[in-house]
Design goal:
The chain is an all-alpha fold. Helix content is 89%, strand content 0%.
């Protein structure tokens, strides 16, 4: 669940960042997807680490 929420937050943040920098629709989509992947992977790693220690 945490991974999905982080990926969604990353997509929103990436789209906002691209729009703020004046990007077109393709730029916004690329930023959203790449940020979603990064945030999702980071959340998955954190989730695995937390599950190992708990």
């Amino acid at each position: 669940m945490m991974t999905i929420l982080a990926a969604l937050a990353g997509a929103i943040w990436g789209a906002y960042l691209a729009k703020k920098r004046g990007g077109n629709k393709k730029d916004i989509a690329q930023y959203a997807v790449s940020s979603a992947l990064v945030f999702g992977l980071l959340a998955m790693v954190v989730s695995i680490i937390l599950l190992r220690f708990i």
